[in-house]
């Protein structure tokens, strides 16, 4: 019998872990790259407030719309194949971002970046679920994968802020293009192919209805900051609802659905999905605006604001791999619930930051939220692949990441709407500080409610198990 960690005894497992972590780090660096520089990019591309919101949320649209699609395709046609295609596509569309002449072109390229990143995230986590068996080995691997989420969020804003000082904002996207191409080549030369037990047909109806519904929903939320009763906003909301209903009907009828709706009957799968959705909406959505607030309210530079955000994302990066020590002591569902609760407490600690505040007053709240994020990220990654059958691990990871990035897109639009509706009367800095206080309250409430919901999704005990427990008592 072979013992020891899989990463020490199996070269293919080591390669899969290294490539998956590198790709995840790169996708999250790209995801957060505009967070500290969106105002500079927006000024150069003549983007207004609404267009700048789209610049922040557009990549989430692509991620949310295509994570399930690429997860399903990976299970059907090969995880390595879809991973390599995703890396190559990310290289091409990152170059499009660098050359974008207008805000519209930049936003469209960011949507395509999201689609390419979706292929890397869904297949990367699916590869780990395939090569690492359930238990401590998989927990360690998914913990490292979760750490890359925090690591990418830490590096991205600093990376782009530094490069603006050197050569302007396009350089960040040229570098991302080059690194994405290298990851694609590395994967093509190193990874072994894996797929589900048998080939599956593409669920075209599911792809069209799901991606369309998410796109209309995010469009409505983003445009809603200018007025929720405007005709086109109401039309977007109606279209999203119709397409979601159509998606549910299509998946029930499909012989091989993109998303097996039966998985929603599994409480572990539902807990992972709800946890990811709340993480995106309540945590990532709010934290995306922290560097902007640091610049507008505290007067920090883009680089200093990016470093400040690292108090959240850096702690998340450190906490995620350490969460494996909780295995066997605390269930993954309870780790997610605890992580979300800690995020909520950290967000509440950020209330009251104003123009008279100094940067270090944000640090305690950011550190608490970062610790919560790290614990939740590690547990979410593990539960996403543990809660589905072995031949559907890419679907499970795709569904989990879809929920996360749908949540982040919704969260960015929600915070933008809260900022727009917050009471005003002072100067721009004072008004933004008031808006961020309200945003912190809304985000904290969502985090804590999410924690309660996830904690309540305990596995039902069967009558046989209940009878056995009663007899042993």
Automatic annotation (TrEMBL):
Q: Write out the transmembrane intervals.
A: 12-33, 53-70, 82-109, 115-132, 144-165, 171-192, 204-222, 228-248, 269-292, 298-319, 340-360, 366-385, 405-424, 436-457
- Listed GO CC annotations: plasma membrane
The highest taxon in the source lineage is Bacteria
Instruction: State whether keyword Hydrolase applies.
Output: no
Signal peptide bounds: none
Swiss-Prot/TrEMBL keywords: Membrane, Transmembrane, Transmembrane helix
Q: Which GO terms describe its molecular function?
A: transmembrane transporter activity
How does the record say this protein sits in the membrane?
Multi-pass membrane protein
CDD domains membership: MFS_MMR_MDR_like
The chain positions of domain Major facilitator superfamily (MFS) profile read 16-462
List the InterPro entries hit by this protein, alphabetically. MFS, MFS_dom, MFS_trans_sf
Q: Where in the cell is it found?
A: Cell membrane
Q: Which PANTHER family does this entry report, sorted A to Z?
A: EXPORT PROTEIN, MAJOR FACILITATOR SUPERFAMILY MULTIDRUG TRANSPORTER MFSC
Report what the protein is called. Answer: Major Facilitator Superfamily protein
């Amino acid at each position: 019998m072979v013992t020891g960690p899989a990463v020490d005894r199996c070269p293919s497992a080591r390669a899969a872990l290294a490539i998956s972590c590198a790709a995840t780090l790169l996708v999250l660096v790209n995801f957060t790259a505009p967070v500290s520089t969106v105002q500079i990019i927006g000024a150069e591309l003549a983007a207004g407030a609404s267009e700048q919101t789209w610049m922040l949320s557009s990549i989430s649209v692509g991620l949310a719309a295509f994570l399930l699609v690429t997860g399903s395709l990976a299970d059907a046609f090969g995880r390595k194949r879809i991973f390599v295609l995703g890396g190559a596509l990310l290289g091409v569309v990152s170059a499009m971002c660098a050359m974008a002449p207008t805000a519209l072109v930049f936003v469209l390229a960011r949507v395509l970046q999201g689609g390419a990143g979706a292929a890397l995230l869904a297949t990367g986590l699916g590869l780990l679920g395939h090569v690492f068996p359930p238990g401590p080995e998989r927990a360690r691997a998914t913990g490292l994968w979760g750490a890359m989420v925090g690591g990418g969020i830490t590096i991205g804003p600093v990376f782009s802020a530094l490069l603006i000082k050197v050569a302007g904002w396009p350089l960040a996207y040229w570098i991302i293009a080059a690194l994405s191409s290298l990851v694609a080549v590395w994967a093509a030369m190193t990874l072994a192919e894996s797929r589900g037990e048998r080939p599956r047909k593409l669920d075209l109806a599911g792809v069209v209805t799901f991606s369309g519904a998410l796109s209309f929903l995010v469009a409505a939320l983003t445009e809603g900051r200018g007025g929720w009763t405007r005709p086109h906003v109401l039309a977007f909301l109606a279209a999203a609802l119709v397409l979601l209903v159509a998606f549910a009907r299509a998946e029930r009828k499909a012989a091989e659905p993109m998303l097996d709706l039966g998985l929603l009957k599994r409480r572990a799968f539902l807990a992972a999905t709800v946890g990811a959705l709340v993480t995106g909406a309540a945590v990532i959505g709010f934290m995306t605006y922290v560097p902007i607030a640091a610049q507008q309210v505290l007067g920090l530079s883009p680089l200093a604001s990016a470093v400040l955000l690292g108090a959240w994302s850096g702690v998340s990066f450190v906490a995620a791999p350490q969460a494996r020590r909780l295995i066997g002591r605390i269930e993954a569902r309870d780790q997610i619930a605890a992580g979300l609760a800690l995020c909520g407490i950290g967000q509440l600690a950020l209330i009251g930051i104003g123009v008279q505040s100094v940067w270090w007053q944000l640090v305690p709240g950011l550190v608490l939220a970062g610790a919560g994020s790290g614990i939740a990220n590690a547990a979410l990654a593990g539960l996403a692949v543990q809660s589905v059958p072995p031949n559907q691990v890419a679907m499970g990871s795709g569904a989990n990441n879809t929920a996360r990035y749908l949540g982040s897109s919704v969260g960015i639009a929600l915070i933008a709407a809260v900022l727009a509706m917050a009471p005003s009367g002072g100067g721009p800095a004072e008004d933004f500080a008031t808006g961020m206080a309200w945003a912190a309250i809304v985000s904290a409430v969502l985090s804590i409610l999410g924690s309660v919901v996830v904690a309540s999704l305990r596995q039902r005990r069967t009558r046989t198990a209940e009878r056995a427990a009663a007899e042993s008592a």
